[in-house]
Write a structure and sequence with these properties.
- With 844 residues, the chain is an alpha+beta fold.
- Strands 5-1-2-3-4-6-7-8-9 form a 9-stranded antiparallel β-sheet.
- The longest helix has 26 residues.
- It is globular, with a radius of gyration of 31 Å.
- 44% of the residues are buried.
Length: 844
């Protein structure tokens, strides 16, 4: 009878969880508070044995222990806490993800025993576990929930906003159904497990069926007093993990336009009203999720003049959102949204989102998104700014002339207000502004106006030039030697002043636009403004660049700071790099975090192409620095190259490699484009001339640039994946680079873009024979320290009697050893592999 009573009780309990609708909060704030603070139910504490939860590529075992479910929310169980013996098995689908997992855990396949775990879910997980449970004694249940109550309520906060998006459907509708009328509604499966492993400590596993990459695992970790969240692995099971487009925060919606009215009050305050036109696609949502800087607080959200409920959630410590400085904002609607519905939302908000880095030098950049947004979909922007008359404001888009009297008081002594309005000339993914007490200079690139804005001073944290102490010299006189003064001369270089160098900045940007327009196609916008930005980081927006103060230094000021020559050259390339982003990153956007490397790698390589034309030796020095960086080790002896491939994006920044993203995406990304350009050019020209030119200038007719112009034409105003980029380059692939008789670059994608190899190349068994007037070169190319399936296009050269280099051809070296046979001019006597160093290889 006890067993029967138990099963009757369990059946009633799970029926309640599946369909019944007891007390359900009637307001958004009450529902959210309930979701984020839900505790364990002392009446639902069980003994569990041999239970399991399965998702694709993920298996959780609960071998033996105690399990308590959370209290109901709108008739549903949304969580459980387990203590006992359990095990997780997670299998990544490809080499890159297995390598990433191994970096953090030492295992290519995760197999870890755990002693406790907190689960949060929105599906039938409780029902799945039902048949593995037996009731625990009442006294044990009370003790268990008391011991774990605070932990469960704290962990409940992590998924509160995500569950609010689901459970908002249970809120009452005006004049319509009561709360809970949709309690049988199914949502895309969500499972978030906080586990305590015996070896790995606390870590998290997340499954979200609605995401482009549903499965990920990771761990918070403190290193050198900094908090990181290491993503061990993230992928779409049973499918390619690369190039998957993750959903936007809002899921099924897109923003068509922004109209922003902002008042800027230096040094820190911003107050704004933003009106957004939003298109709903499939419909069915009851809530949308936005991002907004954590320094800005929303006062109200309205639709058609009526207030909407919203929840502004502080970013969780250690997450990517925390690093970006953004909160998540959930906006809840009175009824489910309809397919094809057009919304007009109005947000009013304010806060101290600006930072003052120095006198007359402000910035927004590192403090998060200054208007509510989701994703990077292009939209039209119309922005109006009110600000003090003695400041200069520069924003994205074209500045619109205002009628007389509407531009505000311009008398600085009167302390009046200025008004300026800026509109985007085409849909753009992001918009920004900068405010300062600038000196302005301008230049022209054809019909394109280039403006540079710099202040008379630099930020407080700017590096100071060292003073030099000089002994006073002794001068002879007619009366004999004169004693020198005991007071030395202290020579202090003058402080840098970006305002002195604004003209040089404008001129350099204009030259870059002229060159890039030939290589990539016309400049995408009507003008370009470059404004001083504190720190060593710069940021590009369509038609606007926030440019590091370091980029405003004159050659003498760089000398005074005693910068390393190579580091000095890299700093000087920031301006050109950010100008190149107008094409790569602003006009052509990346699809997901796995594709962002393309924008950074291309912009960086574009800046080096200009350097190559001006100073080939420095071009080589920069590439060599990148090579050395990628072959360096951290304090634990881990190779930087093992941080992962470029397609891991921001995941490359971790507790193992805090600067991994910049090193891999920028530096390896630059090398990948250099390899592509070199092998395409060399293979196409081999039939025209075998003579090797030491530093052939970049030509717009090269296959590399032909491909880039195709990308610009096809993807202007759109997003592109890594796979799509490679497919365009395949169209320009010369016959010598066809692998296995196919016009494909999948070998380059899989081995180099999605890989981490930096092989060492060598040649052996070289034989040069002449027969019937034909010279033949045979030999074997060896690839060491590389995957067995790595394919590398190796340029083979020969040296003539006059010591001239002659290009013989590209050999597709496949694996550890590859034999080759090439024809050569008569009289060659020495063979060299890649003497111009166009491949990212390790030194011999």
């Amino acid at each position: 009878m006890i067993g029967l009573a138990w099963w009757l009780l369990a059946a009633t309990s799970w029926a309640l969880g599946a369909g019944a609708t007891p007390d359900c909060p009637q307001t958004t704030s009450a529902l959210y508070a309930r979701i984020r603070s839900v505790g364990l139910d002392p009446q639902r504490v069980y003994r569990v044995r041999d239970a399991a939860i399965d998702r694709p590529n993920l298996h959780l075992d609960f071998d033996d222990g105690t399990l308590a479910f959370t209290e109901d929310i709108c008739g549903r169980i949304t969580g459980a806490l387990f203590e006992g013996e359990g095990e997780i098995r997670l299998r990544p689908p490809n080499r890159a993800e297995r390598g990433s997992l191994a970096l953090f855990t030492g295992m290519a396949i995760l197999e870890e025993q755990f002693t406790s775990g907190y689960l949060r879910f929105n599906d039938d997980t409780a029902t799945v576990l039902q048949r593995y449970l037996s009731p625990a004694p009442a006294s044990e249940g009370a003790e268990f929930t008391k011991e774990w109550g605070d932990t469960s309520r704290r962990l409940a906060e992590f998924d509160a906003l995500q569950l609010l998006l689901n459970f908002s459907h249970f809120l009452p509708t005006p004049g319509g159904s009561e709360a809970g009328s949709e309690s049988d509604r199914k949502f895309p499966s969500l499972l978030h497990a906080h586990l305590v492993g015996k070896r790995l400590g606390s870590f998290e596993v997340f499954w979200d069926a609605a995401s482009g990459e549903p499965l990920w695992a990771g761990q918070p970790r403190v290193k050198d007093d900094l908090l990181f969240f290491d993503i061990w692995t993230s992928f779409a099971p049973n499918g390619p993990g690369v190039g998957t487009a993750a959903r936007t925060l809002a899921g099924d919606a897109s923003i068509a336009s922004f109209r922003i009215q902002a008042t800027v009050q230096p040094p820190t305050k911003l107050r704004a009203s933003t009106e957004e036109k939003i298109r709903i696609r499939s419909g069915g949502e009851r809530a949308l999720l936005f991002e907004l800087s954590r320094f800005l607080k929303i006062d109200a959200v309205e639709a058609a003049g009526r207030p909407l409920d919203f929840i502004q959630n502080p970013a969780i410590e250690g997450t990517e959102l925390r690093r970006k400085g953004n909160d998540l904002v959930a906006v809840v609607f009175p009824a489910p949204l309809l397919p094809g519905q057009d919304l007009k939302l109005r947000f009013t908000y304010a806060g101290e989102v600006l930072s003052e880095a120095g006198t007359g030098l402000l910035y927004v950049g590192e403090r998060g998104t200054w208007y509510p947004n989701f994703g990077l979909s292009p939209a039209q922007f119309d922005m109006e700014f009110h600000y003090p008359a003695n400041w200069t404001l520069v924003a994205t888009g074209d500045q619109i002339s205002l009628p007389p009297g509407e531009d505000g008081e311009t008398n600085e002594e009167a302390g009046g207000e200025k008004v300026s309005r800026w509109t985007s000339e085409r849909p753009i993914p992001v918009a920004g502004f900068n405010l300062g007490k600038y000196v302005r200079a301008e230049a022209k690139a054809g019909s394109i106006l280039v403006e540079a804005y710099g202040t008379k001073g630099v930020e407080k944290s700017f590096p100071k030039a060292k003073s030099e102490v000089i002994e006073r010299p002794t001068f002879p006189t007619v009366f004999g030697p004169r004693s020198k003064s005991t007071e030395p001369i202290v020579m202090t270089p003058p402080s840098p002043s970006p305002a002195r160098d604004v003209q040089a900045v404008a001129d350099r940007a204009a030259k870059a636009i002229a060159a890039f327009s030939q290589w990539f196609g016309p400049y995408p916008y009507g003008s370009l403004a470059l404004t001083q930005m504190p720190g060593d980081l710069s940021q590009g927006w369509p038609g606007l660049v926030f440019l590091s103060s370091l980029a405003f230094l004159s050659p003498q000021e760089q000398t005074d700071l005693r910068l390393d020559p190579v580091a000095r050259e890299i700093d000087s390339q920031i301006l050109v790099h950010e100008t190149a982003h107008q094409w790569w990153g602003d006009l052509v956007q990346w699809k997901s975090y796995r594709d962002q490397w393309m924008a950074e790698g291309l912009a960086n390589y574009a800046s080096l192409l200009l350097l190559e034309q001006q100073n080939p030796a420095q071009f080589r020095q920069v590439l060599e620095k990148y090579r050395r960086d990628l072959l360096s080790k951290n304090e634990e002896g881990e190779w930087l190259r093992d941080a992962g491939p470029v397609t891991l994006g921001q995941r490359l920044d971790s507790s193992h490699f805090p600067e991994g993203y910049e090193a891999i995406s920028y530096e390896r990304g630059t090398w990948l484009f250099h390899m592509l350009r070199s092998m395409l050019r060399d293979s196409e020209t081999v039939s025209h001339s075998r003579k090797a030119r030491a530093n052939p200038p970049a030509s717009a007719d090269e296959p590399f640039f032909r491909a880039l112009r195709k990308i610009r034409e096809r993807y202007a105003g759109k997003s592109i994946t890594t796979q799509e980029l490679v497919q365009v380059f395949e169209e320009e692939l010369p016959r010598p680079l066809w692998y296995e008789n196919r016009r494909k670059l999948d070998w380059f994608l899989e081995g180099w873009i999605e890989g981490t190899a930096i092989p060492e190349l060598a040649a052996r068994d070289i034989h040069i024979t002449e027969k019937a007037g034909v010279t033949t070169v045979t030999g074997v190319i060896v690839q060491r320290d590389a995957p067995d399936d790595l394919v590398t296009a190796v340029p083979v050269y020969a040296t003539t009697a006059s010591n001239a280099l002659v290009f013989l051809g590209e050999v597709l070296a496949d694996g550890a050893e590859t034999g080759f046979r090439l024809t050569a001019p008569s009289g060659v006597h020495k063979i060299e592999l890649d003497p111009k160093q166009t491949i990212l290889t390790a030194p011999k």
